[in-house]
């Protein structure tokens, strides 16, 4: 087993068992290891069909269960309420789910749980597609990205639309905590979990989880690719606490989006015009976030 990652927030006690079945360089493994050390052993996890369940469930020596794609939030709500009835208010109740189970198939139940302000923590490890079943596009897949259902051809330039802004969607439910995170900044990720885990009510952390297989880059470059996405502003890091947005990472100067996108095979077809479109979108979004920083969202 490798040495623990030293951060200001995280325990050095390893909980995740070694030898997971994920692909080399999978961001989910980095997330799982650090999430488990941050929440500790007094935690129950649920998941749904997908990369996380298939590759990591055997490595979690804690309370772990799963359900159908659309049933994750209902299962977690039931566990939360059962524990409260029994007087157990100390156990962490956590979902470890991908973008398909958050942005698409599981969104209806999750939205209902957010509206009820259920007391659980939802972690969305977002690799931008349904990677476990072949890499089909999801609602979180970025514009122009190549997937098996959004190819590049004579009449296709990859996905036609921008991915859903999950953090703002769930912030609009008036929940106490929503945030974004990335495997490119583990300290930021575990710091947000450490801060939010004791907040009562619905909590969601949307974590960027690069997929070497689906995104098309060398498995040794996972953290670098993730960091380029945050340094370019494509994946900004912030949290929304009781409706107030706080940027948690502000690069002195945003890197060109081409530095983040070109190393990924799914974006290598982009023309200069398409890269400029990305640059303009990111610049506008970053400008808006800077204006909102420290202020309540208009929701």
Kindly describe this structure.
- It is a single chain.
- This protein is α/β, with parallel strands linked by helices and 299 residues long.
- It has one domain: 3-Layer(aba) Sandwich (Rossmann fold), CATH 3.40.50.970.
- Helix content is 35%, strand content 17%.
- The chain starts with 26 loop residues before the first helix and ends in a 7-residue tail after the last helix.
- Mean pLDDT is 93; it is low at 1-6.
Lay out the secondary structure.
Elements: H1 27-39, E1 43-47, H2 51-56, E2 63-66, H3 72-85, E3 92-98, H4 100-104, H5 107-116, E4 121-126, E5 129-130, E6 136-137, E7 152-153, E8 156-157, H6 166-171, E9 177-182, H7 186-196, E10 203-208, H8 212-216, H9 222-231, E11 238-241, E12 244-247, H10 257-261, H11 272-292
Helix pairs in contact: 1-7, 3-5
Number of domains: 1
Strand order of the largest sheet: 2-1-3-4-10-9-11-12
Range of strand content: 15-25%
The overall pLDDT average reads 93
| Overall number of strands | 12
The CATH superfamily appears as Thiamin diphosphate (ThDP)-binding fold, Pyr/PP domains
pLDDT below 50 for ≥5 consecutive residues: which ranges? 1-6
N- to C-terminal distance: 46 Å
**Oligomeric state of the chains?**
single chain
Structural class assignment: alpha/beta
Q: Given the structure, what is the number of helices?
A: 11
Approximate helicity band: 25-40%
In sequence order, what are the helices and strands, one letter per element?
HEHEHEHHEEEEEHEHEHHEEHH
Largest sheet: 8 strands, mixed
| Rg from alpha-carbon coordinates | 18 Å
């Amino acid at each position: 087993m490798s040495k623990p990652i030293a951060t200001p927030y995280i325990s050095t006690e390893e909980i995740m068992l070694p030898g997971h079945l994920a692909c080399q360089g999978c961001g989910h493994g980095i997330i799982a290891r650090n999430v488990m050390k941050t929440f500790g052993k007094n935690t129950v996890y649920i998941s749904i069909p997908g990369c996380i369940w298939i590759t990591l469930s055997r490595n979690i020596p804690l309370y772990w269960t799963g359900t159908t794609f659309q049933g994750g939030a209902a299962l977690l709500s039931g566990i939360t309420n059962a524990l409260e009835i029994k007087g157990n208010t100390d156990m962490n109740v956590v979902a470890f789910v991908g973008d398909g189970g958050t942005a698409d198939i599981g969104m209806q139940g999750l939205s209902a749980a957010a509206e009820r302000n259920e007391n659980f923590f939802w972690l969305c490890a977002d690799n931008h597609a349904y990677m476990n079943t072949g890499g089909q596009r999801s609602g979180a897949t970025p514009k122009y990205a190549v997937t098996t259902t959004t190819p590049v051809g004579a009449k296709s330039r990859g996905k036609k639309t921008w991915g859903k802004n999950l953090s703002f969607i769930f912030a609009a439910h008036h929940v106490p905590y929503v945030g974004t995170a990335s495997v490119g900044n583990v300290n930021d990720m575990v710091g947000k979990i450490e801060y939010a885990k004791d907040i009562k009510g619905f909590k969601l952390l949307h974590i960027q989880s690069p997929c070497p297989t689906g995104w098309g880059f060398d498995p040794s470059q996972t953290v670098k690719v993730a960091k380029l996405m945050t340094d370019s502003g494509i994946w900004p890091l912030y949290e929304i606490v009781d409706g107030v947005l706080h940027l948690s990472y502000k690069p002195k100067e945003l890197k060109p989006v081409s530095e983040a996108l070109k190393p990924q095979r799914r974006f290598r077809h982009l023309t200069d015009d398409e890269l400029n479109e990305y640059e303009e979108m990111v610049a506008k979004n970053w400008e808006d976030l800077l204006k909102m920083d420290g202020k309540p969202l208009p929701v």
